[in-house]
Automatic annotation (TrEMBL):
It comes from Amycolatopsis pithecellobii. PANTHER family: ALPHA-L-RHAMNOSIDASE C-TERMINAL DOMAIN-CONTAINING PROTEIN, C, PUTATIVE (AFU_ORTHOLOGUE AFUA_3G02880)-RELATED. The keyword Signal applies. Residues 556-685 form the CBM6 domain. It holds the Pfam family MGH1-like_GH. GO terms for biological process: carbohydrate metabolic process. CDD domains: CBM35_Lmo2446-like (cd04083). This is Bacterial alpha-L-rhamnosidase. Keywords: Signal. The lineage of its organism: Bacteria, Bacillati, Actinomycetota, Actinomycetes, Pseudonocardiales.
Length: 688
């Protein structure tokens, strides 16, 4: 999938695709064209403007990512091997740089968001990765991602719960049953009866950088992919076995709902229980208080942390209550969220994190946030959600991977022999990064829980976020407005159209427009956004820009990486001489912009001067437009600094009018500008 072995030409092509996506700007439509599809396009509104700036901005970007940027037409010749695809609807691709849906991406994105936002689009996407065998039996496509096929079962069951589509469920059950049978009898990525566990790569780590040595070696000499390594293909990994457990549970659910013979559901539940016991027997580590990441065929275990594996243990109910409490107490998060695997393998480091090691993938963050919300860990859920919103707001949307220590866009490293390492690009417009955030809002914040009989609510509204309303959310035949009031996880009151309801749920048969009001209590006082500043002293909470997560930044120096960046602008560290965590590149096409919130001590109107530190190695001066609160003020020239992008200069200009406590100064590539500079920081000083 995302880590197939590639030759040098293919690797260069991937990087070129990333650069093209960056310069075309966030939200650019894919070349294949966007397929028209009726979809729910909800909107979110926080009463707290700071929360709206942070979470509302990210939510809108995530919707655009899924329903516009990554919804594409589907070639029936390629994607209709199941015979169930509707060519007029389209599918959801994996994201920028990845034109395919792929089984894992299609499943995760449908499960996290698409089934709710656009059931028809999700159904089409799920069928796009299904095929028929020689006998006409439906099965998830049999590609070289063998261990990844069964996550489709969980996504398919979720699609049914959201929609109630029995016709879909009948075909999904056939597909799921045949696929799991294939995997049970496979010689590669199959079942190991000695352990009672499934073999094959971990659910998320299709690259060898996600594995310690063993099963890897110090130079990663066999392959960049994971399955060519014998220790991986025969090894057993936490998340993969948890996904199989969920598949068995959901196959049993499907069989019961369809009225299949009782022995079918009973058999699947028996297999699920046996697998759950094997997981707890072979992976639980009493000493660390966590599940181990791996068990190799020779019995070697590894007391390493796998973020997805820990999340799935909680989400799927594999961990008992005591184990769940232990996981929450002992799991390690990096500065910018839950890492994929942890800690650094010996062959990697903080300076060069592995592509799948001690690095943050938002899709993993999303699973972890879901788990935290389910466990009632409100501060942890708030922090993880704020981190991903910050990463999106500061980098023109949702990228594939970020450095766990700095939050900078970073694709991670890969060994290619004794001395050489390859630094991968992190792809823009990643669908499962966006759907991870959407799931944080839908099933975390609003607590949406889909059942066979209806939709129930278990919201998690952190203190300080303020009241929040989700409008125009379509659920089956109902159009919902859901408003959360107060803060906490305990429901004090639940009303539907102003009438008190004694259960916090609505029936699947509900139709028409309805307003649900939920008042919450029990919020814990503390650190709502995980910035180590207590809420009582947090003067600038929940606004775009990482510095604001640590209190109000001094307007006399605002790092460019702490701005709200759009249009392809992102963080980077591939040149030297910058200050702070990173500098900004991507100011290369019209529409690119960086917006700096200047926190002043007075709301009185006045003027000030601005200094910008920048790099320009072009042959001539470049121009950008400066605006205040959305109103253009002037075009500014940035003279050439030198022939090197490692050299930096400054430009200062005065008479910039401002008013209010928090004016927003934006530097943008507008019509008539030439752009193509890098930014390091902005300084604002009021006129005397």
């Amino acid at each position: 999938m995302r880590y197939r072995p590639v030759g040098r030409r293919a690797g260069v092509a991937i990087l070129a695709a990333a650069a093209l996506c960056a310069v075309t700007g966030y939200g650019a439509a894919p070349a294949a064209g966007t397929a028209a599809v009726a979809a729910s396009t909800p909107s979110i509104e926080f009463a707290n403007p700071n929360s709206q700036a942070l979470f509302g901005t990210a939510y809108q970007a995530a919707l655009k990512n899924v329903l516009q940027t990554n919804t594409i037409t589907a070639d029936p010749a390629h994607y209709n091997k199941s015979g169930l695809l509707d060519p007029d609807i389209g599918i959801v691709r994996a994201g920028g740089g990845y034109p395919q849906p792929w089984t894992r991406d299609a499943s995760v994105n449908s499960w996290n968001a698409t089934s709710l936002l656009s059931p028809a689009l999700a159904k089409n996407t799920l069928w796009s990765v299904v095929e028929k065998d020689a006998g006409g039996n439906l099965q998830v496509q049999q590609d070289d991602q063998q261990w990844d096929q069964v996550i489709w079962v969980t996504a398919a069951w979720n699609q049914y719960l959201v929609t109630g589509d029995r016709s879909f469920l009948e075909n999904a059950y056939r597909t799921a049953a045949d696929t799991v049978t294939i995997r049970e009898h496979a010689s590669t990525a199959g079942f190991n009866p000695a352990y009672g566990l499934f073999t094959g790569a971990s659910f998320f780590n299709d690259g060898i950088a996600g594995y310690p040595a063993p099963p890897a070696d110090a130079t990663e000499s066999v392959s960049t992919g994971s399955m060519p390594w014998p220790g991986v293909s025969t090894g057993m990994f936490l998340s993969t076995n948890e996904v199989y457990y969920a598949a068995y549970v959901n196959l049993a659910n499907m069989a019961e709902k369809l009225g299949r013979p009782g022995q079918e559901a009973a058999s699947y539940r028996a297999k699920a229980n046996a697998l759950k016991s094997a997981i707890n027997k072979h992976f639980w580590n009493q000493q660390t208080g966590l599940y181990n990441y791996l068990v190799l065929a020779d019995g070697t275990t590894g007391a390493y942390q796998e973020g997805t594996g820990l999340a799935f243990a909680l989400i799927f109910g594999i961990a008992n209550p005591a184990q769940a409490r232990s996981i929450l107490a002992h799991a390690t998060e990096m500065t910018w969220g839950m890492p994929d695997t942890y800690p650094n393998w010996a062959r990697y480091s903080d300076a060069q994190p592995g592509r799948h090691n001690a690095i943050v993938w938002p899709v993993v963050q999303g699973f972890w946030a879901k788990a935290l919300a389910q466990q009632g860990e409100q501060n942890g859920f708030a922090a993880e959600t704020a981190r991903l919103a910050e990463l999106a707001d500061g980098n023109s949307g949702f990228w594939e991977i970020y450095n766990g220590n700095t939050g900078v866009v970073d694709g991670g490293w890969q060994r290619l022999g004794d001395t050489v390492k390859f630094h991968w690009g992190s792809q823009p417009d990643q669908t499962w990064s966006a759907t991870a955030f959407l799931d944080m809002i839908h099933t975390g914040l609003f607590g949406l829980d889909f059942t066979d009989s209806g939709l129930s609510f278990t919201p998690d509204l952190p203190a300080g976020w303020g009241d929040v309303t989700l409008r125009d959310l379509h659920y089956r035949n109902a159009d919902l407005t859901i408003a959360l009031h107060g803060a906490g996880t305990r429901i004090g009151s639940f009303t539907i159209d102003g009438r008190r309801a004694f259960r916090s749920e609505i029936p699947a048969s509900l139709s028409g427009k309805h307003t649900i009001d939920i008042t919450l209590t029990g919020a814990t006082a503390g650190d709502r956004d995980g910035d180590q500043v207590p809420d009582a002293r947090d003067l600038c909470p929940d606004t775009a820009g990482t510095a604001t997560l640590r209190g109000c930044p001094d307007p006399a120096h605002i790092e460019a990486e702490d701005a709200l960046n759009t249009g392809g602008v992102k963080t980077n560290v591939n040149h030297t001489g910058y200050s702070g965590r990173a500098f900004l590149d991507g100011l290369w096409a019209q529409g690119a912009s960086s917006a700096f919130t200047v926190h002043r001590t007075t709301a009185a109107a006045g003027t000030g001067s601005i200094t910008l530190r920048y790099a320009n190695a072009n042959n001539e001066a470049r121009t950008m437009t400066v605006s205040v609160d959305g109103t253009p003020v002037r075009q500014v020239s940035f003279p050439r600094v030198s022939s090197s992008w490692d050299d930096w200069g400054t430009v200062t200009f005065g008479d910039i009018p401002v008013s209010g406590l928090n004016p927003v100064i934006t530097v943008s590539y507008a019509a008539g500008d030439s752009g193509s500079i890098n930014l390091d920081w902005l300084e604002y000083r009021a006129a005397n």
